[in-house]
Amino acid sequence: MEDTMSILRPFHIAFPVRDIKEAREFYGKILGCPEGRSADDWVDFNLYGHQIVAHYKPSLDSSQNTLHQNPVDGQDVPVPHFGIVLTMDDWKALRNKLIDANIRFKIEPYIRFEGEVGEQATMFFLDPSGNALEFKAFQDLSQLFAK
Fold this sequence. Notes:
CATH class: Alpha Beta
CATH topology: 2,3-Dihydroxybiphenyl 1,2-Dioxygenase, domain 1
Helix content: 10-25%
Protein name: Putative dioxygenase of extradiol dioxygenase family
InterPro entries: Glyas_Bleomycin-R_OHBP_Dase, Glyas_Fos-R_dOase_dom, VOC_core
CATH superfamily: 2,3-Dihydroxybiphenyl 1,2-Dioxygenase, domain 1
Structural class: alpha+beta
GO molecular function: dioxygenase activity
Keywords: Dioxygenase, Oxidoreductase
Number of strands: 10
Distance between the termini: 19 Å
Pfam family, one: Glyoxalase
Strand order of the largest sheet: 1-4-3-2
């Protein structure tokens, strides 16, 4: 297998949303993701070079979206979730932007595994449709897959 850190390919994920306009507001304005192609019932976003696609699902009711949770470092991590590994400066800037936008965190921004292998900054929050997102950062990116 090739060294994925030197030839990282863009990731693609498609996920359901209850409202395309609401998704545009959240992903486009709050998270700052540039918009790509779109139609009436889906929209592409550029999430730090990765393609995420919000697909309208008429029957989606985020109030009934119950996520499974797994304990990690004393926190209940929502599953499923997706996100991105940022630089520490970008993570801090996004954290501050989310706080300023009054986004409610599922797991408040903090340093996970502090002083241990894999130490990382992390935060979890939900989009308006109830999709869980995690954004994390490492001071030392070589710790990403460290055991």
